[in-house]
Amino acid sequence: MQRQTRRHVGGAVRTATAACAAITLAGCFPAGGEPAKRSPGAAAGEVTVVRGNRVYPLTIRVTDWQVGPHPQVPERGNGVHVSFRSTATGDLPEVVVEVALCAVDAADVVLLCSTVVARQEDRRIEDGDRWIGPAELPRSLSETARVVLLPDQLRPGLNAGDPKDGDGYVPPGLPSPGDRLRTA
């Protein structure tokens, strides 16, 4: 009786192990239970947008920035007003493209980040502006040495991280204050 029970338990364990391996290989859930976050690409004042290994026909460039009080909430302190230009050389593969825009200090340590959005319906060359902050931060945005963009598409798509139903792309997260960025 004991030998028969061991055989059933051993068979059940082998079956469960094989089922888990098959589910993982099929892409129903990634190994480890959650898709791994990617490291963002190199930060720069001008970037060509990428999604994994795919290069988009879109370049975004910081054209100007200045630190000062936000006109709508001057009592909250300084923010960084950023002007940028996006240039599309073809049709965007997605309706909305979003990339990180970060104010960094002289050592490329993030003070604060926001995002820049480009849409399919935008003109080929689009000028825009964006405020980063003001915000309650451990360090002042007055320490901003430059403003950089990260090239990675932040929007994950419908089936992010699922190689079975999507492309398996998992975007990097928005950098946090204190993160050191890799620069181009």
UniProtKB/TrEMBL annotation:
Keywords: Signal. Residues 154-184 are annotated as: Disordered. Residues 1-21 form the signal peptide. This is Lipoprotein. It comes from Kitasatospora indigofera.
